[in-house]
């Protein structure tokens, strides 16, 4: 039997990366936090612009013509690229306000506390030399010429959207530094992005590298090519004079460079095989100054911790959740970040969530992600379902990075995933595709995770519905029996909010300016729009369509628009009594199961982390306990084949979530911090309550 019924969606012979006339634009900046940038830094005709192959260089890209030019066009083009003279970074660093305060003794660790100003000047000059060096233009041109030839050897083309490039050019016209942040989609990002910006006339990009991975000679070479290195003293304790001075030099050097992008050095391993295609996406630029001003003007509330919000509900002591936002602090607290004021740390944390949300939103969904999702969740009829899933992705405003004949795309996706698949030729001439059992399922889960941001709202809602039905009907019961149950809007909001609190923030991509209650309403709207939920009138209530007697409450009449929250609008005047039922359409059971399974790998890892509490050896370091949990996940996968729940990042997310929830307590020690089991969860009863709380959201 087909898991997806025939006739579901539209079977397309040719896949196009758009539904209407134009390709959807993704990755716009936040209209709430940066309204001016949202309007001014957007190219009005971006949808009509196409792609450009940035590694395609011919004699047309040079000032010369002829047969010799056609053979030397790479070299001649690299020689024509404009490289602005590098400013005197040492003078700018020395003239920064923070450095001057340290030299004058007005700042902690300054000259008034020990070392002489002349000695501090030498330290500043030494640290500045560790961070960056003057760029050698000829060396940079030779390096990029060699890189251009290398990229043409491993890629058929490297595509860049001309509209996105136009927005970056527009932002570069302002007399302010440009900062580029990457999601590290490829090991070549650290080389590809500087080459791309230099070749497109945007100047030399200063790239930040990790100094521990390279020899001193290699670090010196990278500095002259535009590399930045964080000095080792920057991670010293906050009260250490060397650490204070080093962080001041790093701050001044970063603010004086042409641009900054945190990345990793490209490693040339793993490039064996056939040439492929690459694509680079830029999200819409925005003004950091505008973002900072608007962020502080809206308030600085940090919310409540996960332990305050969820622990008592997990233990069964509370039935009503506190009316407060979750404290969302997941930015790694490195040395330079800890040196900032508390308000600045909060600003960096909120900014990082905005940037991560925009960067993932602008990332195109590739054919391997669609194919892996269909195979991992055991769907049949690959041709038909590949077309449907592509269409659903485009309907939700996401972009896809492929087009062409449907059969060719399916075969291309299978070819790229061949190491995780088994193909069997059937007598009828068809091909049976089965995922290989074992650790190779981890690769399918990794590719399939790229689809989670597309269906995240619906997946959260489906798991919340699953939790509501868990205590009413057996999970293995027929769909018709589950569709009889009435689900109130208040219950749906509560279960959705519980799951939102539980899931890590880097998965949800919930922007700091977006209320979690607003997100709950969006989840409910998405479930209705996709046809999984249908409105049902509760017995004894007025019909929803009877709007004649609706009135605003008196306390609603005088309130400003900023004071309206979802709790006011949704639960006022009895609207919380609205009820819903699961739709009985033929496609709904399989679609519901598909959505639930998108979150099942992570939730399964969380549930097994709860079951591991009585087996784990504590006290232990955070890294040590994460490795213990990872080995436990691998052991369970050997028993039941659930290798999609064995990723090390899932174990790390579980440990971090349990720390925030108060299950694991961190205690400082002489050799570093160690994790201890909270006294509340030393009993098996509370451990089982935690595991059952998580498992209610998992659909088998």
From TrEMBL:
Gene Ontology biological-process entries: fatty acid metabolic process; glycerol-3-phosphate metabolic process; phospholipid biosynthetic process; piRNA processing; triglyceride biosynthetic process
Domain of life from the UniProt record: Eukaryota
The protein's name in its UniProt record: Glycerol-3-phosphate acyltransferase 2, mitochondrial
A Pfam family per the record: GPAT_C
Domain GPAT/DHAPAT C-terminal: 262-666
Annotated GO MF terms: glycerol-3-phosphate O-acyltransferase activity
InterPro entries: GPAT/DHAPAT, GPAT/DHAPAT_C
Lineage of the species this protein comes from: Eukaryota, Metazoa, Chordata, Craniata, Vertebrata
GO CC terms in record: mitochondrial membrane
């Amino acid at each position: 039997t087909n898991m997806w019924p025939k006739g579901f969606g539209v079977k397309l012979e040719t896949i196009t990366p758009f539904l209407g006339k134009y390709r959807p634009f993704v990755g716009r900046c936040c209209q709430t936090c940066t309204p001016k940038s949202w309007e001014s830094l957007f190219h009005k005709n971006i949808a009509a612009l196409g792609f450009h192959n940035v590694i395609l260089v011919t004699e047309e890209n040079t000032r010369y013509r002829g047969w010799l030019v056609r053979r030397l066009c790479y070299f001649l083009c690299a020689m024509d690229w404009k490289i602005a003279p590098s400013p005197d970074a040492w003078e700018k660093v020395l003239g920064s306000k923070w450095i001057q305060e340290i030299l004058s003794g007005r700042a902690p660790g300054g000259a008034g506390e020990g070392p002489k100003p002349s000695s501090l000047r030498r330290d500043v000059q030494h640290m500045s030399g560790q961070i960056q060096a003057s760029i050698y233009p000829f060396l940079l041109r030779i390096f990029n010429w060699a890189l251009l030839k290398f990229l043409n050897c491993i890629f058929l083309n490297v595509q860049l959207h001309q509209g996105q490039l136009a927005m970056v050019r527009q932002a570069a016209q302002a007399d302010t530094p440009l900062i580029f942040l990457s999601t590290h989609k490829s090991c070549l990002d650290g080389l590809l992005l500087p080459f791309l910006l230099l070749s497109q006339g945007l100047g030399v990009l200063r790239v930040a590298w990790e100094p521990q991975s390279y020899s001193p000679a290699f670090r010196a070479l990278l500095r002259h090519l535009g590399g930045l290195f964080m000095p080792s003293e920057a991670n010293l304790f906050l009260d250490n004079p060397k650490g204070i001075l080093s962080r001041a030099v790093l701050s001044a050097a970063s603010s004086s460079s042409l641009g900054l992008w945190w990345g990793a050095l490209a490693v040339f391993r793993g490039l064996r095989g056939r040439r492929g295609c690459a694509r680079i996406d830029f999200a819409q630029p925005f003004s950091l100054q505008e973002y900072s001003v608007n962020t502080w003007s809206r308030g600085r509330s940090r919310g409540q911790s996960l332990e305050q919000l969820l622990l008592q509900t997990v233990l069964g002591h509370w039935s009503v959740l506190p009316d407060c936002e979750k404290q969302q602090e997941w930015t790694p607290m490195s040395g330079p970040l800890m040196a900032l004021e508390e308000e600045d740390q909060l600003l960096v944390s909120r900014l990082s969530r905005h940037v991560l949300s925009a960067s993932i939103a602008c990332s195109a969904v590739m054919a391997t992600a669609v194919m892996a999702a269909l195979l991992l969740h055991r769907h049949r009829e690959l041709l038909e379902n590949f077309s449907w899933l592509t269409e659903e992705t485009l309907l939700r405003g996401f972009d896809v990075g492929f087009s062409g004949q449907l059969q060719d795309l399916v075969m291309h996706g299978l070819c790229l995933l061949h190491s995780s698949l088994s193909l069997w030729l059937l007598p009828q001439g068809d091909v049976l595709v089965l995922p290989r059992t074992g650790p190779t399922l981890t690769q399918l889960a990794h590719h399939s995770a790229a689809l989670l941001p597309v269906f995240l709202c619906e997946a959260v809602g489906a798991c919340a519905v699953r939790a509501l039905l868990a205590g009413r009907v057996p999970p293995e019961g027929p769909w018709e029996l589950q569709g009889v149950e009435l689900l109130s809007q208040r219950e749906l909001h509560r279960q959705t909010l519980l799951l939102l609190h539980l899931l890590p923030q880097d998965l949800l991509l919930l922007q700091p300016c977006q209320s979690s209650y607003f997100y709950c309403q969006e989840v409910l709207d998405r479930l209705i729009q996709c046809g999984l939920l249908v409105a049902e009138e509760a017995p004894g209530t007025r019909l929803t369509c009877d709007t004649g007697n609706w009135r605003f409450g008196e306390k609603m009449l005088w309130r400003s628009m900023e004071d309206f929250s979802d709790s006011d609008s949704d639960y006022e005047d009895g609207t919380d009594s609205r009820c819903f039922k699961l739709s009985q359409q033929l496609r709904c059971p399989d679609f519901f199961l598909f959505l639930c399974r998108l979150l099942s790998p992570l939730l399964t890892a969380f549930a097994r982390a709860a079951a591991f509490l009585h087996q784990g050896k504590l006290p232990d370091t955070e890294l040590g306990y994460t490795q213990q949990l990872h080995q436990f996940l691998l052991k369970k996968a050997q028993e039941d084949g659930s290798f999609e729940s064995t990723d090390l990042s899932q174990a790390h997310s579980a440990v971090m979530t349990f720390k925030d929830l108060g299950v694991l307590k961190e205690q400082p020690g002489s050799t570093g911090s160690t994790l201890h089991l909270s006294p509340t969860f030393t009993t098996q009863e509370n451990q089982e309550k935690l595991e059952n709380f998580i498992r209610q959201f998992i659909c088998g």
